[in-house]
Amino acid sequence: MNKDRLIAWIQKTYNVEPEYLWRKYPNYAVFRHGHNGKWFALVMDVEKSKLGLAGTGKVDILDVKEDPGLIIEMVKHSGFYPAYHMNKENWISVALDGTIDDDKIASMVKTSYALTSK
Question: What angle, 0 to 180 degrees and rounded to 10, lies between the N-to-C axes of helices 102-116 and 3-14?
Fold first, then answer.
């Protein structure tokens, strides 16, 4: 799932609009609950080096909250990284470059939404 499709899917599924909070980072889209204001997803484009990837340029990623026990295993696989800009124990970054299938990304957003809704 690419960034644009993901943003459209989140808007439709959760009836929320992305918030662009930082002038310095105009492509960073935050999604939060209407009832408690908590973030459940963050879509960004970051330098590959920030994720420990080789090469130059940026990559689109999604940050979501996940079960800490699962994060430990997930980051061992391609397309998953310790969370960029978030608590690495409770959040994970997911590449939006086709490495991870759409159903898995959607499932992770659903999990994050549930974990942050309390």
Answer: 50
